Amino acid sequence: MGKQLEDPQKTLIRRSPQDWLVASKVFFLLFLLALFACFCVIINAGERGVVMRFGAVQPEIFDEGIHFIVPLIYSVRKITVRIQSQEISAEASSKDLQDVYTDVALNWHIIPEKTNLLFQQIGDEQSVINNIINPAVEEVLKAVMAMYTAEEIITKRGEVKQNVDRSLTERLSPYYVSVDDISLVHVHFSQRFSDAVEAKQVAEQEAKRAEFVALKASKEAEAKVNLARGDAEAQRLLRENLTPELLERQAIEKWNGELPFIVGGDGTKVLDIKQLLAIRKNSSKSP
């Protein structure tokens, strides 16, 4: 007869001790890894670790890398010290009592060596934004905008930005926050002020146009006077320099070879040039 099949149940019973041994080794290894993980903490790039002993913040700050602690006694809170960007909108009033609406982009970071004090006194990053940065930006904008008129806020934008940057740096420094850069993304005013500015610009353009038209008319009139003076001077010089010899020369230059005829009481006769010149000479000598 052929070979009889083994009972699966007997095979399972026979292999169970070996399987349990492998499973126990795997479980023990996982237990060791979990236990090891409880004794170490990894601080990632751009972070600092705030060390607490039974919840009390300690002077020591963990830098980037792996650190060993005693679990249940010590705990670590990770805080980012990378540059963060925060966009804030604020309303203020100018020196001439115009409403100013400003959109600000602020780049800031937590001072790494003061991370434990910041966490102890303020909290995490979100607490810093809500409780420190947002109120500080609004307060500084109101103070700086009140130093300038609405027109100066537009024409002296760079100076306004520098004052906001300096004031905000001084305002946030006691809270262990460093200002990297601040940008006045958009500054606008009320619709009434915008309409007034537009009307002023239109009026200035119209005034400049009227001034140009008046200046053009004045120049044209002056040109006509100068032209008339030139014509009068030319006529005077012509009268002074008109001599019989000049008339005779001009007549000869324009003569076409035929003598003109004069129709009068004595009938038709040929114009005598010499007689014409004599008449001209006598008329010039008469008083």
**Mean pLDDT across all amino acids:** 78
Question: What is the total tally of β strands?
Answer: 10
**H/E element order:** HEEEEEEEHHHHEHHEEH
Beta strand %:
25-35%
Low-confidence stretches: 1-5, 9-13
The largest β sheet comes out as: 3 strands, antiparallel
Query: What's the helix count?
Result: 8
Based on CA inertia axes, which overall geometry fits? rod-shaped
Spatial separation of the terminal alpha carbons: 176 Å
Walkthrough of the structure:
This protein is of the alpha+beta class. The chain is built from 8 helices and 10 strands. The strands form 4 sheets. Strands 3-2-5 form a 3-stranded antiparallel β-sheet, covered by helices on one side. Strand 6 (84-93) and strand 7 (99-110) form a beta hairpin. The longest helix has 51 residues, at 191-241.
What order do the helices and strands come in, and which of them pair?
Elements lengths: L7 H31 L1 E4 L3 E7 L2 E7 L2 E4 L5 E7 L3 E10 L5 E12 L4 H7 L3 H21 L4 H6 L1 H16 L4 E13 L1 H51 L2 H11 L6 E4 L2 E4 L2 H13 L2
Antiparallel strand pairs: 1-4, 2-3, 2-5, 6-7, 7-8, 9-10
Helix pairs in contact: 3-5, 7-8
Give short descriptive properties of this protein:
25% strand, alpha+beta, disordered N terminus, three-stranded antiparallel beta sheet, 287 residues
Q: What would a concise description of this structure say?
A:
The protein is of the alpha+beta class and 287 residues long.
